[in-house]
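check this:
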Amino acid sequence: MLKNVRKVLVIRKTSRLVYERQRTGDEFLIQKLSERGSDYHGLLQRHEKHESSVKEILRCLQNRGVSVITRKKESIRDEDVRWSDIVIAAGGDGNFLAAASRVPFSNHMVVGINTDPD
């Protein structure tokens, strides 16, 4: 099955740092996170680890001649799922569950890769 994979849909999570930036804005982000007991530098480190993991996944697939589409879990489109041979959920449990719930086709495999396993 995996030998025949030529088209992959990679579904990326929205990191907590990106979520907080969208919610708060950049100007007061560090202050707001601190008020809520969150560590900006820790979130930044985990975000960078996730991004690095996704880049490595994409690099490995492209080096094998696989066509890749990436989407955030919030913007998965049915036509992307139909186009793909396999779906890779890059993130954590929530991202995997979101991806699996959007793949109604029994002939599609969903593979989860935890991009921040610590």
Observations:
- The chain has a mean pLDDT of 89.
